[in-house]
Design a protein that fits this description.
It is built from 16 helices and nine strands. By secondary structure, the chain is α/β, with parallel strands linked by helices. The strands form two sheets. Strands 1-4-5-6-7-8-9 form a seven-stranded parallel beta sheet. Helix 12 (249-256) links the parallel strand 6 (238-242) and strand 7 (260-262). The two termini are 25 Å apart. The protein binds coproporphyrinogen III. Coproporphyrinogen III (CP3) is lined by residues 23-28, 37, 43, 70, 72, 74-76, 88, 93-94, 139, 141, 155, 202, 204, 320.
């Protein structure tokens, strides 16, 4: 078999036109997702149902033929495995019991392997059912991003509760992040052993951290994951997505050891091209250009291809696709990227 396109890019090869997939490509913008989601009951029921999770993962591959497929699950299955009473309330986003510093020592990861077994079963099913040329991406949340939800108990615009916690209880924060790093690494190893070709670590809230906290709470725990995964799976390919890291992106790449760095849309092209000289990049179309379509979409696509197409690039959005994305615009995006 020829090596899958996205895997060639992660190995440092320039592939043009670049492989394309979209963060959150299985989701509410697809009518077939909404239909399956309604049958599943709750959102977590969907994540833990290998039949239905396999089905929704495959839906965007069947419809659009992306070069990569991302496992359908959520980053918050880790706190759910820690029995933090995670719930997804329609229209309100995720909620869970907020954790206090003194509770951290009592967190018990012992249940995680059993709890997450259905997700691992989904990975195995996917590898068997996906087209041979399609890369299968596993994932987890970065410890910092998962911790922001565990500390606040819900999403917040600036993660002030977790930032304050990090300044007031730095040792408790280190302890929480170390536990999450260890659990997440073991979870990624199981995904890779079950058939994932590579994995992505989502640090969606990296951008709210100052430089000192970024080193300590984002880079450090992510490096732990990378090292622990590669100790079990030598040469494992890993994409890191520290959203909003901006000028700290080179430090993130060097400090974590990830193979490729995901870029959000605020990263300037020249900066991205410099970073690309040190290894592959992924991104970084503003998801709102996809909503707008027309000229806004075309000029966004063309600029990425022009500035980053000459090096190792995985084409993606700069963050997840939103529920209001028109399907015709997604079709147009793929067609234009593939035309090169
Ligand atoms: O297609 C894919 O990308 C794979 C599946 C996936 C989901 N969530 C499914 C999902 C992935 C990779 C995630 C990651 C995730 N989850 C992140 C990191 C990436 C990012 O977007 O920043 C974060 C922060 C979460 C936590 C989370 N899950 C939030 C904040 C929400 C609610 C926000 C919203 O869009 O409603 C979710 C729910 C969620 N995860 C949905 C999907 C398809 C929508 C839930 C639904 O169907 O009702």
């Amino acid at each position: 078999m020829h090596e899958r396109k996205l895997m060639r890019v992660l190995a440092g090869e320039t592939v043009y036109p670049p492989p394309i997939w979209l963060m959150r490509q299985a989701g509410r913008y697809l009518p077939e997702y909404r239909e399956t989601r309604a049958r599943a009951g709750g959102f977590l029921d969907l994540c833990y149902n290998p039949d239905l999770a396999t089905e929704v993962t495959l839906q965007p591959i069947r419809r659009f033929g992306f070069d990569a497929s991302i496992l359908f699950s959520d980053i918050l299955v880790i706190p759910d495995a820690l029995r933090r009473n995670v719930r997804f309330v329609q229209g309100e986003g995720p909620q869970m019991d907020p954790i206090a510093p003194h509770e951290i020592a009592n967190l018990d990861p012992g249940n995680a392997e059993t709890h997450l077994a259905p997700v691992i079963a989904t990975v195995a099913r996917l590898r068997a059912e996906l087209p041979d040329e399609t890369t299968l991406i596993g994932f987890c949340g970065a410890p910092w991003t998962v911790a922001t939800y565990m500390i606040a108990g819900h999403g917040t615009p600036d993660q002030a509760p977790a930032r304050r916690f990090g300044y007031q209880h730095p040792e408790a924060m280190d302890e929480l992040l170390a536990l999450l790093a260890e659990m997440s690494a073991d979870y990624l190893v199981r995904q890779l052993q079950a058939g994932a070709d590579c994995v992505q670590i989502f640090d969606s809230w990296a951008g709210v951290l100052d430089e000192l906290s970024f080193e300590r709470f984002s880079i450090g725990p992510t490096r732990r994951i990378v090292e622990r995964v590669r100790a079990s799976v030598p040469g494992a390919r890993i994409i890191g997505f520290p959203k909003g890291a901006g000028p700290l992106l080179p430090a993130y790449r060097a400090g974590t050891g990830v193979d490729a760095v995901g870029l959000d849309w605020s990263v300037p092209f020249r900066f991205a091209a410099e970073l690309q000289k040190t290894g592959p990049v992924q991104g970084n179309l503003d998801p709102l250009r996809l909503i707008a379509g027309g000229r806004a979409l075309d000029e966004g696509i063309d600029a990425i291809l022009q500035h980053l197409g000459g090096g190792p690039l995985v084409f993606n959005l700069g963050h997840g696709i939103t529920p209001d994305a028109p399907i015709a615009h997604v079709e147009h995006l793929i067609e234009r990227v593939r035309r090169g």
